[in-house]
Design brief:
By secondary structure, the protein is an alpha/beta fold. The protein folds into two domains: 240 residues, Type I PLP-dependent aspartate aminotransferase-like (Major domain) (Aspartate Aminotransferase, domain 2), CATH 3.40.640; 102 residues, Aspartate Aminotransferase, domain 1 (Alpha-Beta Complex), CATH 3.90.1150. The protein is 34% helix and 16% strand. The protein is built from nine helices and 14 strands. The strands form four sheets. It has a seven-stranded mixed sheet. A three-stranded antiparallel sheet has the order 11-12-14, with helices on one face. Strands 1-13 form a two-stranded parallel sheet. Strand 3, helix 4 and strand 4 form a beta-alpha-beta unit. Helix 3 crosses helix 4, helix 6 packs across helix 7 and helix 7 runs parallel beside helix 9. The two termini are 35 Å apart. The chain binds pyridoxal-5'-phosphate.
Amino acid sequence: MTRVFNFSAGPAVLPEPVLRKAAEEMLDWHGSGMSVMEMSHRGKEFISIHAEAEALLRELLAIPASYKVLFVQGGAIGENAIVPMNLLRGKSGADYINTGEWSKKSIKEAKKYCSVNVAASSEANGFTSIPPRAEWKLDPDAAYVHICSNETIGGVQYHWTPDVGDVPLVADMSSDILSRPIDVSKYGLIYGGAQKNIGPAGLTIVIVREDLIGKALAITPSAFDYAQQAANDSMLNTPPTYGIYIAGLVFNWIKAQGGLAAMEAHNRTKAALLYDYLDSTAFYSNPIAKADRSLMNVPFKLKDAALDDAFLKGAQARGMLQLKGHRSVGGMRASIYNAMPIEGVRALVAYMKEFEAQNG
Ligand SMILES: *Cc1c(COP(=O)(O)O)cnc(C)c1O
């Protein structure tokens, strides 16, 4: 068996101990005589798996008791519609901060449900920074302020939590949730698909302040009504059971590593290895303002794009996969989520040096 270093942006690398445990438990989970995939979501075995996953997530993020945790379907793109349907609460508009491709998708979808005020945008500089808070033109009557905490494609990330006063702050954290400690009480709602930093695709996590739910638009499908899902412990419809099980194993793994502070230290060390090298040579470049660089997704370009294919081929031959950049940006992108071991980043930097020496 050979495991590669998988730099995919998502679905992405998972911790090897989690995959081993899932393999061990595949045919017979804890003496139940069946796989988690085969269990009733209403049986006591799965209910215990679900409850443990939620308890661990609450512990890792120190989620206050006044927040609901939902394990649902629909993905972050689904949430782009589900958020306005649930959070408008009689208001007609919401503020959005535009920091890249994922923000743009959120804005486009929200426009179907409300008027969108783009309160700040870094589009003019090619999405290479996060607009400073002082430049945001917020509407005091907005239903909420939406940000994307980490732009998975562009590689920009907030390293501060915006203060937006009494208006609820909503964050798409698909690609950096659990990568570092956060103060959940500063947010009204946090959502994310699991397939970047948590587990398999198909599971969506929503953390929402209780007082914000219960006023969904009448057209909201029941399965996407936070209040109905909260009242049913995320079991209004069949939840993504296997995804919840794997997420629980990942939460346990994070806890065993020392929790989110340890994750952040590990992620900072990995990212520094890569950025320090990128900054030390003119052969490669990363366009993002240093203060706003993502610790999770590191896009970079070779000096000569004609070398891209050779670079990717050489990486593949050394067991490093999925380094091709997003089609909208070009170049390369190394996604280095929680589960990417430091050895993977060391191997990548060593290969980049070797490639530069041969082609520079
Ligand atoms: C991947 C990603 C999405 C899309 O998630 P889906 O699960 O495909 O709906 C949305 N936002 C961000 C920040 C992402 O990284």
